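Before a computer can learn anything about folding, someone has to put a protein's shape into writing. The outcome of that step, for a single protein, is printed below:
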Amino acid sequence: MMQQNIATEPFVKCTVATEAGIGRVEYQIEIADKVYRVFFDSPRAPLSGSVEAAVCMSVLGAMRQGLQIVIDDPVSRTFLINQQQLVSIFTGWFTQYKRPEWNAKLIRKAHASGATRVGSFFTGGVDSFYTFLKNKSDITDLIYVHGYDVRLEDTQKRLAISAMGAAVERETGVRFIEIETNAVRLFKDYGKWGLHGHGYGLGTIVRLLEGYLERIYIPSSFAEAELMPWASHPATDVLFSDEAITVIHDGCEAARTQKLQSIANSAMALQHLRVCWEKLEGAYNCGRCEKCLRTMTTLYGLGLLSKATTFPEVLSVSAIRGLLLDSESARTFAAENIRFLDDMGFREDPVRAAWIHAANRPAWKLALIRRSRRTWKKFLRQWKKITT
C-alpha cells in the first residue's frame, strides 16, 4: 500500500487497490482536495489491482489541474515511460491540459505474466463487431464495462447487454467478461468522456486485466484518413502496454460504413448490434440519436435495415434533419454517410438530402437551436412539477 505523503503543493495520489472479494478491487484516488473511492467488480475474471491502473485513473485530473502525480508503490518502468509519452501527445492535442510532474518513488521492471488469453473490448457496436469478427480466431474473451457508456442504474438496458453478450458467447464459444465500475465520474470531472476521458478509462481496464490477458484489442473509432485528436487513438492506446500486457488498436484500415458493410454478412451482428448511448431507460437503440441514425442510414443504403432487429424498421428523415452536428466527429461521420449514399446511387434520396441539411447548418444556427431546445426542456420540467 502507499504510505502517507507530505507535500507542500497540491498533488494527485494514486492509491493501489485493496481486494474486497474474488474479482473485486477498490481504489482511493486523491486529486487535490477531491477523493474518489472507485470499485471494479468482475465475477468471471481476476482483476490485478495494479498501481498502473491507479495511474491511468489519475493522469487526466493531474493534467487538467496541473498537479504532481505521486506514486509510492513500485511501478513498471516501461509503463511509466509510455505514459509520459502519452501525456506529451495528449497535451499537444488539447491545450487546456498541462504536463504533470511525475514523482515515482520505486521503479520496477515488468515481466510477461505467462497469460495466453486474448481480449477485445466489446460493446456490441459496429467497431466492436468488426474487430471481433476480423480477429475471431485470435480472441478468447470479449470485455464489456458496465458504468462507462451505460449508467449502473439502468438495470433494464444492462440486462439486455448481458443477454446480448451471453448469446454471442453461446454462438461463438468466446467468453463474455463483464466488469462493473463507478469510475466514470472520475474521468468526466476532468474532461468530456468521448473526446478526453474514455481512452484512460479503457487503459485502466487494460491494466486490471494484466495477468489474465496476454494482449487486448481496442477497436478503432475512426479510419486512418479521419483520425483526429480523440481519447482512443492508435498513437496513444498502445502506450498503456508494457511487458505484462500488449494493447492493439485495431480497425483503422476501414471507415465506419465499410465496417458495417463487412459485418452485415453476419446474422449474429445484425441480430445484436447496439450503438446507442442515449440515457433512455431500458432502450437498446433509441433510433433517433446521431449514432443510431448514421448506423441506420448505412443499413438503409445496404437494404438491410429490416434485418437489423435491434433498430426501428423506418428511418426518420425529420430526425436526421433535426440533428445538431456540432462536433468534429459527428460532422466526419455525416460526411462519410453522404459519400456512402452517393456511392450506392442514392443521390436523389430524401435521406441523403436530410444529411446534407444537417451537415450544412451554420454554427450560429446550431447554437440558437440548442439554446432554444434547452429552454423548452426546462419549461417542460417546470410544467411537470406544477401539474403533478
About this structure: The first strand starts at residue 11 and ends at 21. The chain has three domains: 11-108, 117-250, 287-383. Residues 157 and 284 are 6 Å apart (CA to CA).
